[in-house]
Structures are given as C-alpha cells and as structure tokens.
Amino acid sequence: MRPFKIFLKTDLFRSKVCGGLDFTxxxxxxxxxxxxxxxxxxxxxxxxxxxxxxxxxxxxxxxxVSLVINQKGYVSEATRTRVEAAxxxxxxxxSNAARQLISRKTGNIGFVTRxxxxxxxxxxxxQIFLGTEFEARNQNHYILLSTIPSPYSPGTDTPRFLxxxxxxxxxxxxxxxxxxxxxxxxxxxxxxLVDFEYSGLPAVIIDNQTGTREAVDxxxxxxxxxxxxxxxxxxxxxxEARLEGFRLAISKAAEIRDIESEILVVDGEPDxxxxxxxxxxxxxxxxxxxxxxxxxxxxxxxxxxxxxERGIVIPDELAVIGFDDVPRxxxxxxxxxxxxxxxxxxxxxALRYLSELLQDNTENxxxxxxxxxxxxxxxxxxxxxxx
Length: 387
What we know:
This protein has helices spanning about 10-15, 30-45, 50-60, 60-70, 75-90, 95-105, 125-140, 160-165, 180-185, 210-220, 235-255, 270-280, 295-310, 345-365; strands at about 5, 25-30, 110-115, 140-150, 170-175, 190-195, 205, 225-230, 260-265, 290-295, 320-325, 335-340, 375, 380. It is α/β, with parallel strands linked by helices. It folds into 3 domains: about 5-105, 434 Repressor (Amino-terminal Domain); about 110-205 and about 345-375, 3-Layer(aba) Sandwich (Rossmann fold), CATH 3.40.50.2300; about 210-340, Rossmann fold (3-Layer(aba) Sandwich). The longest helix is centred in the last third of the chain and has 21 residues, at about 345-365.
C-alpha cells in the first residue's frame, strides 16, 4: 500500500503519530495501516491487529506473513526478520480462526474419556488431562474435553466436536467402548490412545509388566515367599500386562527358591467395591500370604482398611503394594508402597505424539497413516511404610 499524506494540526498528533519530528507545515508521510494502529493506540481504542496490517508494515505480501507465522515454506532471513519486527511492533497475535483459514486446520484437539473416569475419587485421568493441557500450550493447540458413557451409542452420544468435525485429532484416555473408537477412525480423524491399546492404533501406555515385576522382585528380596495377586477388569490390556509381570517374576524366583503365589480376581472395575470383595477372599486364605500385590491403589486401600479392622499389622504380618501412586497413597494408614505412574507425562507425550501424526498428515496431503506404534513410559517403585 502506498504511503499517504496526512495533515496534523496539533502538536499532540504530530508528536504521537509522526514520531515527534519537526514539520514546517504540520504534515508527515506515513503508511495508512501504521497510522491506524498508532492512532488507535494513542486514543486507547486499539483494535485487534490484522495480518494485512502486519504485511503493510513489513512491506510484504500477506502470504509471506502467513509463511512466517506458520513456520512453513521458504522465506529469506531478511524478510523473516522484517515480518517478525512488524508483528512485535504491532503486537500482532494470530487468531485461531485466521490459522484455520490459512492452514485448513482448527488447532483443536479432542480429549475423550469415559464419564465415570471423571467422577471417581482418585484423579488418575484428571492428571493425564492436565498433562495434555500443559503441552497443548507449547504446541499452539486448544484442548476440547468430552466424556462419553459406557455402553456408547454412536450418533446419540457422539461428542459435538466429532459431529461437527471441529477437531484435528482426538486423544482417547482409558478404556472406552470400541464403537466410539471405530466411529472416530471411520471419520478419518487421527487418534492416539492413552493408557489403553486397541486394534493396533497409536498409543501411549505404561510399562505395566516391568513395573509389576519390580514390585514383586522387591517383595521376594525382602523374604516374602507367599505372595497374592489381587486384580479386577482383567480383560483390560493394562491389567493383563500386570498379571503377566506378576507371573514372570514368580516364575523366575521359583527357579532358585520355594515360593507360593495366589491369584485372586473379580469382574468389574478395579475400584473400592472390587477391593472389598478381593480383601474378603484374601483374608479367608489359609495359609495366609505374607505379601500382596494389588493391580491399583484403590484395591490396596481396601486391603489396608480390612487389615486394620482385623488387627493385622502392616507390614509385619502382611506387606502391601499398589499401582498408580494416586495422591491418597502418601496419606493412607500406613502410607502405601506403590508403583508410580507419571500421569501428566502420559498426557504430555500423547499430545506430542498426536501433533507429530498431524504434521505427517499435513505433509502427506491429508492422508492419515493408521499404522500402529505404542510408546511405553517407565513406572517407578515408590517405597513407603506398607512394604
């Protein structure tokens, strides 16, 4: 845009808009877009700066500003520096709508989990969600949260952002109805599963097997040679992996010493109710085990409560280890030895993984590769008074 001539009749306007220069006829040459910005700033009525104003200030095309903002395509270093200086001078912040028009991307990421995962007392999935939210800020994404029921009815229970195709990708946390996963992938939307594996889809999961083996190895090293496994929802991949880790640790130890094991499982969610049922079974065993590994902390808390009711001293008579390290673990009586899951890191890595898939999707002209790959993050044994 060509500079235009403006006549300013006051010292205030001349000093503010023309940079304080001394004009003999109260006039200055200034770019119209720059003048609008400086004029609005002076009056305290500053509008939201547009990409056209940035382009005018840097004396480049709007498309060039777009390339610099989105860090795509070739732009010379001198031009890039000029555009960056203009965006800083004008305090330009690209809107999500503008990015969407330029890139045909919404910038939105859906986060979906089952409704009951957010109503339980232990905030496992809440912490995973926080991890995605923190990382989303670094990736310039917006997180849209939705919960779905189980069982799930496509259409009736479909999250609004999926119906309206208002997300670029979706993170699915925990076990959900396979009908929802199928509905999402059939829509061609990239998906990353968190703390769950299904049908070879990309996933970020805990190294459940190694974490469990470390816990059982620790119990055996402390001389506990009669160990029980307490589990629920055993068709869940995470629970299956924990049972496999338990069996592997027992099998390895049995090669060099006498060792006994018990496997107690119930149907349903691994919650307090399941924990009470399993505790009843545990305390009816004869001979009574000297240690117990629980598939999660909720079940372990039930064991601690029933042990206290029956006067069983923890850990002298019974060592107890849980899995997850929820906040209550450090406050239970006694404080619970458990396997720590880095829940925020799960969410953070899942968001990064999905961002990479979206980037690959863009570079391959929108053809989403559904190839499988799971990322495992390590778990850590946290020693407290229960073992």
